[in-house]
Amino acid sequence: MRILLWHVHGSWTDAFVRGRHEYLLPVLPQGGHWGLGRAGRDWPDSVREVTLADLDADQVDAVVLQRPEEIAATARALGRQPGADLPAVYVEHNTPKGDFPFTRHPLADRPDIPLVHVTHFNRLAWDSGSAPTLVIEHGIPDPGQLYTGELPELGVVVNEPVRRGRVTGTDLLPAFAAVAPLQVFGMKTQGLAAAAGIEERRLTERGDLNTHELHRELARCRVYLHPMRWTSLGLSLLEAMHLGMPVLALATTEAPRAVPPEAGAVSADVDELIRVARRLIANPEEARRRGAAAREAALARYGLGRFLDHWDVFLADLRARPRHSDNERPEEQILVPARERKTP
């Protein structure tokens, strides 16, 4: 299939475009969220940059929507209405904001565009009304078991921790910094130590490294810390598990499903997480053992092959299902579990 999608969420797109299809990514001279294209990423040749104004509508077999505004943007560019005369799916990456648990999804009650959630928690949390919904869990290209744990420090990956504050658990970092120094990776980490009231010698702001460098440097830390209160399921957590790192995570959103107890600790009790952090920092062999369990769990549930197989099943069904007008409702759609295969 030839699939149109915008490059919105880099890590998710990085996995999605490694499938068996042709992926058409809009590009603009100024880039930005509406025209990133490949953004210099090392993706397969099947990922092609396109200019919407020059794109032939017949060249598109389906569109993967990730923002409500993309519905109208697609119709304007192609002269085809997503869900009516163009197969379309909406991927919801985020937890609901606002008046949770009463937050209505922008596509609530729409029968024409299936709504795919990336976690079971998200599907539960959003009020989608009668819209057809399902879950296709994340997949991660395996970076390999790079863990060394040579540094008795805690690694954290978070974007904009100063601005996002309690959402990302920034206020919890001082308590963990008292156990071991923190290395914090991600976009806009500048000024984090001062904002969180942590001595500079206890927190190193590493900034936004490229993926390979991030994995190598993160894997040197003894333990991965995931202090997020209200995020869907940070892909950095799954990447850390793939690396073979033991992980500590707040028991919020999807984390309890993603992290088995033997991989580290998942708890809403911050004091418990601090106790485990202190023990793992002091016991490299236990940290390594728990990291191996984390990697095994991540490969089993969040392997790239499983992710792509599930999307193939869904896309085949999407292409075959009849189109619906606004006053029609499709029969309930069921995603048949894909045949498991090894991650390439």
Mind sketching the topology for me?
Blueprint: E1 2-5, H1 10-16, E2 22-26, E3 47-50, E4 62-65, H2 69-78, E5 88-92, E6 115-117, H3 120-125, E7 133-135, E8 151-157, H4 161-164, H5 173-177, E9 182-185, H6 192-196, E10 203-207, H7 211-218, E11 221-226, H8 235-243, E12 247-250, H9 255-258, E13 264-267, H10 270-282, H11 284-302, H12 304-320
Parallel strand pairs: 1-2, 1-4, 2-3, 4-5, 5-6, 6-7, 8-9, 8-11, 9-10, 11-12, 12-13
What does this structure look like?
- This protein has 344 residues and is an alpha/beta fold.
- The protein has two domains: 2-139 and 305-320, Rossmann fold, CATH 3.40.50; 151-302, Rossmann fold (3-Layer(aba) Sandwich).
- It is 31% helix and 17% strand.
- It contains twelve helices and 13 strands.
- The protein has helices at residues 10-16, 69-78, 120-125, 161-164, 173-177, 192-196, 211-218, 235-243, 255-258, 270-282, 284-302, 304-320; strands at 2-5, 22-26, 47-50, 62-65, 88-92, 115-117, 133-135, 151-157, 182-185, 203-207, 221-226, 247-250, 264-267.
- The strands form two sheets. The protein has a seven-stranded parallel sheet with strand order 3-2-1-4-5-6-7. It has a six-stranded parallel sheet with strand order 10-9-8-11-12-13, sandwiched between helices.
- β9 (182-185), α6 (192-196) and β10 form a beta-alpha-beta unit.
- The longest helix has 19 residues, at 284-302.
- 43% of the residues are buried.
- Residues 326-344 have low confidence and may be disordered.
